[in-house]
Amino acid sequence: MESIGSSTAKGGYKEEYYMTNFINENNVYIARLFGCNSIKTRVSLADKAYVLSGTHKTDIIWDYKIQHKKTKEGQFGQVCRYWLDHMHKHVPMSANVLRILRGMCELPLDKKNDKICDKTCRVKKLLRINYTERQLNSVIDYFEKNKLDILKMVFLGHNEKYIPDIISCSIFKGKKRHKILMWSTKDVLDYFSLQKCRIRKSGTVIEIGQYLTFQRKGGDGGKKQANQFQFKAIISKIPNPLYVKIFDN
């Protein structure tokens, strides 16, 4: 049986093709909304949008580079996942903060099979029973002081060639497409950079505002990859999209 994650990925990929057709049908209007006041200033506007193959932050190449998500109204969805060492490399943290985040995200591997997590162990939650208030505050300070760099890692990635200019999403109600929303990536970064960071009461999630969270990935049948972290966002809740299309259902 096909996994839910696999089905979701394939559904999102199919939606990217729909989105390229949508952009090609509305290219002049969308281009003007995102800063093109004169078609003559953008020779490439005549080019057709197309889906970019491979794993990049950009899903669709057009006159702008677009990251596209398929979602439901108010639904959290993964926007990135990495190993903690990747985050430490690009947004360095103290040894103390790295140790605390490893405790929250990385279970020991099984002694007999280093490809799976030891299911007899539990993550070390960010709670006062495990850490002092000073230690917990050091984690929040790391996220607050490095917020913009963290957001760039989450939404832009590190491949300069494929940094998205636009973030868009298709919002579904059941099996029907309900809305298309589009934001300037800069506006998305500006919005989240003003949000406060905090640790949820569960001790397993760090929030950057209400609509962006950092947590252990988990799942994957307990495979080693479950020890990665992920950022999840409610894309549909980001305010002030530059483009809104509501479909009559």
Unreliable spans: 1-12, 37-46
Helix content: 25-40%
Integer average pLDDT: 87
Number of discrete domains: 1
Give the percentage of residues in beta strands.
15-25%
Q: What general form does the structure show?
A: elongated
**Order of strands in the sheet with the most strands?**
1-2-3-5-6-11
Q: What's the assembly state of these chains?
A: single chain
- How many β-strand stretches? 11
The largest β sheet comes out as: 6 strands, mixed
Total helical segments: 7
Order of helices and strands: HHEEEEHHHHEEHEEEEE
Computed over alpha carbons, the radius of gyration is 20 Å
Helix- and strand-based class? alpha+beta
Rounded to the nearest angstrom, the distance between the terminal CA atoms is 31 Å
Structure in words:
The protein is of the alpha+beta class and 249 residues long. The chain has one domain. Helices cover 31% and strands 22% of the residues. It is built from seven helices and eleven strands. The protein has helices spanning 4-25, 27-33, 84-90, 95-105, 133-145, 147-155, 185-193; strands at 50-51, 60-61, 65-72, 77-82, 166-173, 176-184, 197-199, 205-208, 212-216, 229-233, 243-246. The chain has a six-stranded mixed beta sheet with strand order 1-2-3-5-6-11. A five-stranded antiparallel beta sheet has the order 4-10-9-8-7. The radius of gyration is 20 Å and the shape is elongated. 27% of the residues are buried. Residues 1-12 and 37-46 have low confidence and may be disordered.
